[in-house]
Amino acid sequence: MSKPAIEFTDITDVEYTLCPGDDPLIKERVLATDPATGIATRILRYEPGADSTPMGVQKHEFWEEVYIIEGSFTDLTLGQTFYAGQFACRPPGMPHGPWRSEEGVTTYEVRYPAPAER
């Protein structure tokens, strides 16, 4: 299985839904997903004051690339704030977060599988 083929479409037609953890201030707009693997492309939005501390430090079994479209958020483990225009590329297993955003933040995120080891 893989992500579906999608021609250009207006992403505002895709509703925001709660992310895992059910914090009403943290939502995602899933643009494309592979239901078998959970690999996805999404817009992630933290409303002002959102804090993902209850989710703890995150580590994934997939690659994750994140571009900050607007706003900022702070990685509480690193004690570092990241801003619009910045980009991250995280290999599988790279720890990150939890996050807090005072002003709110919107990111574009692409997840893809790690290649099988040879």
Automatic annotation (TrEMBL):
InterPro entries for the chain: ChrR-like_cupin_dom, RmlC-like_jellyroll, RmlC_Cupin_sf
Pfam families: Cupin_7
Domain ChrR-like cupin: from-to ranges: 25-108
Name the record gives this protein: Cupin domain-containing protein
Species: Saccharopolyspora griseoalba
